[in-house]
Specification:
The structure holds two protein chains of two kinds. Chain A contains eight helices and six strands. Chain A has helices at about 30-40, 50-60, 65-75, 80-90, 110-115, 115-125, 170-180, 195-200, and strands at about 100-105, 140-145, 155-160, 165, 190, 210-215. In chain A, strand 3 and strand 4 form a beta hairpin. The longest helix of chain A is centred in the first third of the chain and has 12 residues, at about 30-40. Chain B is globular, with a radius of gyration of 23 Å. In chain B, helix 2 packs across helix 9 and helix 3 (about 55-65) packs across helix 6 (about 115-130). Chain B folds into three domains: about 10-245, 3-Layer(aba) Sandwich (Rossmann fold); about 250-340, Ubiquitin-like (UB roll) (Roll); about 345-430, Up-down Bundle (de novo design (two linked rop proteins)). Chain B is of the alpha/beta class. In chain B, strand 7 and strand 8 (about 305-310) form a beta hairpin. The chains are: A alpha/beta, B alpha/beta. At the A-B interface, helix 2, helix 4, helix 5 and helix 8 of A face helix 5, strand 3, strand 5, strand 6 and strand 9 of B. Bound molecules: flavin mononucleotide, iron/sulfur cluster and FE2/S2 (inorganic) cluster. FE2/S2 (inorganic) cluster binds near residues 106, 109, 111 and 149 of chain A.
Amino acid sequence: MADFIKHPVVELPERDPEPSVPADRLFFSEEEKARIATYVSRYPTADGAIMRALWLAQEKFGWLPPEVIRLTADTVGIPYSQAYGVATFYSQYYKRKMGTHVLDVCTCFSCQVCGGYDMLHHLEKKLGIRKGETTPDGRFTIQEVECLGACGSAPMMQVTNGPYVMNLTEEKLDTLVDALQEGRMPPFASVTLPQDQDEMGGNRRSDAPSQEIYQAPPVSQTIR
Amino acid sequence: MSVSNGSVSKAGDWRSYQRVLLPPVKDLHKLEVYEQHGGYASLRKALTDPAWTPQAVTEEVKKSGLKGRGGAGFPTGLKWTFMPPVNPDVPRFLCCNGDESEPGTFKDRQLMEYNPHLVFEGMILASYAMSVKTSYLYVRGEYADWISHMERELEKLYAKGYVGKNIMGTGFSTDLVIHKGAGAYICGEESSLMESLEGKRAYPRSKPPFPAQRGIWGYPTTINNVETLACVPLILEKGGDWYAKIGAEKHPGPVLYGISGHVNRPGVYEYPTGMLISDLIYEVCGGIRGGKKLKALVPGGSSTPVLRADMIDGVTMDADGLRAAGSMMGTAGMLVLDEDTDMVSFLRRITHFYHHESCGQCTPCREGTGWLENIVTRIDEGEGNLRDLDLLLDLCSQMEGRTVCALADAAAWPVRYTVERFRSEFEARCRPSLVSVPETAALPA
Ligand SMILES: Cc1cc2nc3c(=O)[nH]c(=O)nc-3n(C[C@H](O)[C@H](O)[C@H](O)COP(=O)(O)O)c2cc1C
Ligand code: SF4
Ligand code: FES
């Protein structure tokens, strides 16, 4: 078969690998436990809180190795198997160690036809890795992701499950990578609605640190 | 292609339309500002005026003709009446669907950013109408920034006593919880959303039983889209009759059109339903980028059938208008493609999306989405045969209506209609086949 034919293979992480978080660091602080207890109190049964608790665990430990999933399940009070199932179902939970900064470039639908792949390939060239890989110094991981819900500002990307960076250009990517190298995260950007532009002369939010306007998207050079 | 000037828009005098979902008010996302501009007055009215019983609220929503904005366009008031009679021992739930993962859709995010209190107020009103004690706002995990902004506003709302115990001293209590997802398109499907809320892998459930009978944790549940619920406070404030008069008669109301792709001014626009597609592209969005010609248009998110440029003449953006044109309203997330777009590669990316997002429960969907991707990829790489096109259509017929949820249909439609409507472009990419295979008739669903 030609090598572009993809097999629907789901790769599950090993269930009992050598723990990667040392035992003396594998715990939640009292404050974190209290937060998890608040999450649990919001649902009729503890199960509902597992997603939020896994988020908290991922922010603390960087990713979700089995021992962290087990710790989270025990803290929430649900079976490990269920928590493991949840952690491996959703794409934003990291099942392997990622770079310090994860660059999620959208290449779906609107972004595809507005240069999403140009941006992805520019990043790949710049960092010398392919999508799905992490730079040898462990700083950056590049991922190709599905629509992030900002199609009007295509091409766009998200940094480590956090801020969106929209209306991308190659220069903007270069600046972004430089800023991240220095540990500066991009600020939250509020997109000005075209009708606000016309009727209110600009963005309606006075508290957003950075503002973008919708603009004519670029022409995509590559679309795969 | 001609730009239709003679055709009638159902949106009336849209140039002087005054926005109501996103009115031009600075910092409207803050509770103080929202209240200054009449926010939470509908809630106060419903809770204090004895004429506004829960039934009366539901009736008003029915009268407005509001149809769901999440994709399926189901009448909202009617959906609310499916909830069983109140039994104090049986909890009931409301879910507001803010998963918004349909490619091409980005309006709920803008609504949650700029007018979150309208959504909250709509949720509390809907909770009142259905006697719900806990409502969940399910927001996709990628919207982390917007979730933290909304949680800040929600805290203010609790502090003010507008949600929680004994709201505004009226004795009515309901809680509102924001649930953060973690990246899965399928969570937008209502039964999958419920599984996800229950802290499980988000596998859709077979229906029936419907959510109103057995929803989250087995209790009666109603699920509505963010934009749908945001219309409720407006309906109570200005009346169902007012709402019913906006836009297209059978599909009324204001709509957030999320327009992306090759237009000069993409973005989220609020206009009445029933706008002419040509008005939206050429007037509202300033035409196609670089003066190019229109080639195709996807009217309501990636799963709605694509329309060729020659098919949009006089077509309006409402359920009837788009059905007549051979497509659907979906989420009103419209993608505009110019003449240079390669439809084969475009379709290849869509099939990749559905293959990636299939939850894998049903064989026709899990395997079918994979083969759709493989075959379209093969054609895109120049290694396809002519008979692959009929194979694709046959595969679509094997997927449609044969699965637990509608994702399989949503994956099959773009393939079916893109291949049918751009067949010559696909044929040009294929090698001629030596054996001809007759076109397979679609099997009954
Ligand atoms: C595969 C699939 C994905 C869906 N995704 C969404 C979504 O992201 N947001 C949404 O509001 N509805 C989505 N829906 C529709 C919901 O199932 C449901 O019909 C809707 O939330 C009901 O709200 P409404 O009546 O207000 O439209 C999806 C449906 C399917 C089959
Ligand atoms: S149709 Fe697809 S997404 Fe829906 S339940 Fe079946 S396998 Fe899952
Ligand atoms: S397609 Fe990239 S954000 Fe929607």
